[in-house]
Structures
1.
Amino acid sequence: MKKRIFITATNTDIGKTYTTKLLLKSFAARGLRVGVMKPIETGVIDGFYPDGSELLSLVQALNPEFLGLHVEDIVPISYELPAAPFVASNNKPLDLDILQTKIEKLEKLCDVLIIEGAGGLYVPLDEEYMIIDLIKIFNATALLVTHCSLGCINDTLLSKKALEDKNIPHIVAFNCKNEVKSFLQVSKPYFDKSGFAVFKVDDDIDTLSQLLYNLEIKNG
């Protein structure tokens, strides 16, 4: 069974690429052929893809079938300005056909395709689409990466509700970085009291990969 997993976050600089790399390694360790794609990357200057290059290097080390690919194969659309694609592209209409074609090509090389988004769920891509729309269009399971600093309760619940409103199957993971102590004191008590499952990216990546692989896609 082919599986598409979309990595999104509550904002930018939360840890999507970091989490994506850990998931790739976790799936590969279980004997699955892994693949990766970042549909749109901004801040690409002089042919250097800050995220795309890292992702391609890792996936080629984990899955030999990706050795013949170039960074443009996993990052089909790129812009120089490090801004929302709507702004970086001067509001150029998003070409969904390019993205769908690339996904189908990459899926032939892997069992699990991890798709990394840009910024948060409501980053505008053009006048019609946001990042959250891509998850629905790609019929993917979502992993929402959130932070652990003060404010994470609000940010997490807002993004989770957005996914629920779109009927997108998802799991939430906390990327605590150096904020574990603060999280335990000021935010985790709420999640514990409300019965919210707290999975941490660093501690629970294998559990997360298993749950994401087993999570059913809900259409409609």
2.
Amino acid sequence: MRKLMNKKGFSLVELMIVVVIMGILIAVAIPLYGAIQTNANNKTCGSNIKSIKTNAASYKTNYNVNATEAGIAAMFDDGQLPECPLSDDGVHNNDYTITITANTGAATVVCQNAGDAKDHHPAE
């Protein structure tokens, strides 16, 4: 019998150690990914809300009348309000509540899930 001088490959113990380390890394990474995704969605919606408010102020300045939701939407390149990002429950919607102040024409904007009054992505 010939002895193999050059053993190639990994032992079962070495492979199990690698699998355990990978499992630990994945267990840590998945919750972090979810938090990063939620934070990005909140910042996107906050940015959209600021754009809507800016367009409402521009509309008031340009036309000397308070903006309407359609008027604000028309000021975006595609003629529509930007979409809310995915909410916490995974629903993709375009549900902004826009209130225009009568005297100043300033817009109060809230992004919320359909059917509830909770502000899911407040602007900063």
